[in-house]
Amino acid sequence: MNNRRHWIAPPTILSLLLIGVLVWGYREYDTRTRYEIALDNHYQRLFYDVKKTCRKCSSRIIKGFSSFFKGKKYTFIFSNNE
User: 23, 31 in Cβ contact below 8 A?
Assistant: First the structure.
């Protein structure tokens, strides 16, 4: 009877360790996937914010140049970019 207990204990401990490692690995994988998605969303948001800012600056520069070079005192240029 005592010999049988020694035969059952190591596989039980190893199977519990394997299950623990699998759970830990899945949690690490899930955390990494969430971080990747969050970083990608953050990058996309920053990219489009910079793109929008560059478009506004470009529009303002073009408005300034056109009003300066036309030689008229009052020139109004309306745009949908703002």
Answer: no
Both structure tokens of 31: 């955390």
Burial of 63 (0-12, 13-18, 19+ CB in 10 A): middle
pTM of the model: 0.57
Angstrom distance (rounded) from CA 75 to CA 48: 30
Q: Which amino acid is at 40?
A: D
pLDDT (mean) for 18-31: 97
* 45-52 long-range Cβ contacts below 8 angstroms, 24+ apart: none
Instruction: Calculate what percentage of the chain has a pLDDT beyond 90.
Output: 49
Q: How far apart are CA 41 and CA 22, in angstroms?
A: 29
